[in-house]
Amino acid sequence: MKGAVGLEHCSGQPPGWVGRAAGVGQGTAPRHGPATAPGLRSGELEGIRGAGTWKSERVIASRQGPHLRLAGGGILNFCANNYLGLSSHPEVIRAGVWTLEQFGAGLSSVRFICGTQSIHKDLEEKISRFHQREDAILYASCFDANAGIFEALLTPEDAVLSDELNHASIIDGIRLCKANKYRYRHMDMQDLEAKLQDAQKHRLRLVATDGAFSMDGDIAPLKEICRLAEKYEALVFIDECHATGFLGPNGRGTDELLGVMDKVTIVNSTLGKALGGAAGGYTTGPKPLIDLLRQRSRPYLFSNSLPPAVVGCASKALDLLMESNAIAQSMAAKTQRFRSKMTAAGFTISGQDHPICPVMLGDARLAAVMADDMLSRGIYVIGFSYPVVPKGKARIRVQISAVHSDEDIDRCVEAFTEVGRKHGALP
Ligand code: PLP
């Protein structure tokens, strides 16, 4: 495998750091608390293992990037949401370090007590400028932004209409609110229209959809959704976690791509994927709505302010994207290279020009053995099967980043072709 680029910095460790992954110091400290958890249903963990849905975590010993160092050696990484490669961008890191030094490790407070610094206000202003909205509010994650919005905005007299494949955090956020709930079939506009008709009896209607769906790399039909929303006087909410920074001519997201920036009322997104990849999320939209969230949204009111270093990294990532869309264009070119070479090799890639490139295989076992075989060739991709995706639609999800080189992409395609032939996915 090619040398692991940019790993020189990983040799040093901060003072007092103990290499857990290497097993240093393990098992020596006394452990307290009961050895069993009384509330745990018997056989629950075995059940998860038996169902084949146990999620294990691979320990990375380097920065996030296209080339990772693991305990067993280096690998070429195709499964991070680091679409623009900003997680380890030198200017982003420098901005994080500078902000850490100037503003400290953290606020030890929620925003409304003594947790708002000038950098939080500046980042909120930058986010609203980026999305061309009136105002923005920061959260510790987009999961929190989604958990906090529906309950704050909707009453029992209102209705929320949600795509059945929306992200878990939207589903949980909707569960927390008292509005009437409608779930429409994935991107099915006839079904949405029927549900909007039924929801006319309610005071307010809110249509909620992912902008880009992370399992299929498909993009919500926002033009049509906005047309229906206008017809039935509904608001439109989009989750742009897999779109912000790179979809659309200026990377503003799905609403820019589909020409409906003036029709989508609320945008939620993350700082934890394309925008530097640290953590954090936000809502951006009309000022009165953001004002209401500051008063009512529980994950905002009752959780700590974003750490300054995280704010500094995200702020720099937005500066870079507002200066130029060259990084997003580079990612689009790499995506195109991967999709066209894989299609020419005989694979079916789901989705539309999105850096999430699901290699459709159908059979769950095939997806698992091929993903394992890819890893044994130094290429890290993840297989997904039921219940994460529908039965018979198992796939290996590949995610392209601007920092993949053309050679990285070609190596991945070659490995897929060899592994596909070996396991009968290709003739
Ligand atoms: N929404 C979508 C569509 C996501 O994919 C994710 C992350 O996986 C989230 C929300 C949550 O984002 P965060 O990691 O900022 O909590």
TrEMBL record:
Stretches the record annotates as Disordered: 22-42
Cofactor list: pyridoxal 5'-phosphate
GO BP annotations listed: L-threonine catabolic process
GO cellular component, one term: mitochondrial matrix
Domain of life: Eukaryota
MF (Gene Ontology): glycine C-acetyltransferase activity; pyridoxal phosphate binding
One Pfam family per UniProt: Aminotran_1_2
Domain Aminotransferase class I/classII large as annotated: residue spans: 75-416
Keyword Iron included in the entry's annotation: no
Record EC number: 2.3.1.29
Keywords, in A-Z order: Acyltransferase, Pyridoxal phosphate, Transferase, Transit peptide
Catalytic activity entry: glycine + acetyl-CoA = (2S)-2-amino-3-oxobutanoate + CoA
HAMAP family per UniProt: 2am3keto_CoA_ligase
Record-stated family: Belongs to the class-II pyridoxal-phosphate-dependent aminotransferase family.
NCBIfam families with a match to the protein in the record: 2am3keto_CoA, PRK06939.1
Protein known as: 2-amino-3-ketobutyrate coenzyme A ligase, mitochondrial
Organism: Apteryx owenii (Little spotted kiwi)
Phylogenetic lineage: Eukaryota, Metazoa, Chordata, Craniata, Vertebrata
